[in-house]
Amino acid sequence: SGIVLVAINPYEHLPIYEQDVIYAYSGQNMGDMDPHIFAVAEEAYKQMARDEKNQSIIVSGESGAGKTVSAKYAMRFFATVGGSASDTNIEAKVLASSPIMEAIGNAKTTRNDNSSRFGKYIQIGFDKRYHIIGANMRTYLLEKSRVVFQAEDERNYHIFYQLCASSSLPEFKDLGLSK
Question: Residues that bind ATP, according to the entry (predicted)?
Answer without folding.
Answer: 61-68
